[in-house]
Structure formats: C-alpha cells, structure tokens
Amino acid sequence: MSHYVIAIDGPAASGKSSVAKVLADRLGLVYVNSGAMYRAMAWAALERGIDPGDAAGVCEMMGRIAIDCGREGSASTIAVDGYNPAAHLTEDRVNASVSAIASIPEVRERLVAEQRAYLEHSDIVMEGRDIGSVVFPDTPFKFYLSARPEVRSGRRRAQGQDDAIEERDRQDSTRASSPLVIPEGATVIDTSELDIDGVAEAIVAKLREGGIAA
C-alpha cells in the first residue's frame, strides 16, 4: 500500500471518534468511522424486524441489501439501499443492538473488507475496536484510548445517551470474533483527565517520531 493508516481503538466513550476527527482534520487525512458501519447494520436489521442477535437472519439480510461505504469530503459515509441512516445511528435501540451485530463473524468479514478498501485511495485515520488488532495489524501507528468507567458513563449521559457502558465493555471484550483488545505495539492513552485537543496533541507528538505529523 502507498498510503498509511492511523489506527485508534478503544471502548465506548473513550473519546476515539472525537479525537480521530480532530486528528484527521489537523493532518489533512480522511476520517473513517468503522463503528458507524456496524451501527448501520444494526439499524438495517431493526428496521426490517430482524433480531440483531439472530446471526442467520442478519446474514440473510446482508445478502439482499446494498451496502455502500464511500466518502464525502474528508469523512467516510455509509448508505443502506441508497439511504443514509446517519440520523438514526445513535438511537437507544441501535446502542443496545450494535454489540450483537458486531459479534457476527460474517458481518465483520464484510465490513472489514470495506474498511480496508479506504486505504487503497487515501491516507486515513480509522477508529473502532479492532482497527490495530485485526483490520490493519501491520500499521506502525496504533493508539488505544481508554478512560475510567464512570468518566465514560458521564460522557454518554452528556451526549443524551443512556447505554450501559460496563455491559457494552463486557460484550465487546468477550466476543469470539475480533474482541476488543489493546493491539500489540499500541500506544495507550488514558483520556480521563484530558480534553480532545490534549489527546490529539499526545498522538501527534508520537506521530512526529514516525515522521508523518507536522
């Protein structure tokens, strides 16, 4: 590949999405939200009356819907059967279902292929839960963000969301397919006492050592 990827992983409300956006803007890279892809699949299943925990039903649905992962400007987009579900991706019902969807190996296989395709055309910042461990394990630019559970729960509430952080952590960390782990070689950053700019600056300082940050 002639392009590079900065991989940012971490649990829910660790700050990875906000930091990835700031970092992509600062470095002039394309921001890819892998979590939005899994959320779009969860939304698609719910809209069609399919239990997100029904792997066979979800796989059957996946075979008959059109999934289009693209980009608009410097950010990734996703459409299902031509519809952009962005306005629905943080609904409580999606929050409650996305871990079940993400645990289905066939879903992960399909979406990981879509995620890797971004690197064919652009330098990217991609955030998620298995970017440095599974999607791009060979990238030298891996970061894992975390924060204390009570801090992350507070951030969720401030966003108007009420999903159970600890249960989400348990599901993501114990699933058989691509569980949430600290990728080998990743720089770990505790964001509990840092704002978005502070985390981004810590990452940029590390990237300077690799010669890719201004």
Radius of gyration: 16 Å
The parts where pLDDT drops under 50 for at least 5 residues are none
Strand content: 15-25%
Give the spatial strand order of the biggest sheet. 2-5-1-6-7
- Which class of secondary structure composition applies to the elements? alpha/beta
Specify the helix fraction band.
Answer: 40-55%
Q: Assign an overall shape.
A: globular
Mean pLDDT across all amino acids? 94
Total DSSP helices: 9
β-strand number: 7
Give the N-to-C terminal Cα separation.
22 Å
Structure description:
Helix content is 46%, strand content 16%. The model has no long low-confidence stretch (mean pLDDT 94). It has a 5-stranded parallel β-sheet. Strand 3 and strand 4 (75-80) form a beta hairpin. The protein is α/β, with parallel strands linked by helices and 214 residues long. The longest helix is centred in the last third of the chain and has 15 residues, at 196-210. Helix 1 packs across helix 9. The chain has helices at 16-27, 34-47, 55-62, 92-102, 105-117, 131-135, 149-158, 165-174, 196-210; strands at 5-9, 30-33, 67-72, 75-80, 124-128, 142-146, 187-190.
Write the layout of secondary structure elements.
Layout: E1 5-9, H1 16-27, E2 30-33, H2 34-47, H3 55-62, E3 67-72, E4 75-80, H4 92-102, H5 105-117, E5 124-128, H6 131-135, E6 142-146, H7 149-158, H8 165-174, E7 187-190, H9 196-210
Helix pairs in contact: 1-9, 2-4, 2-5
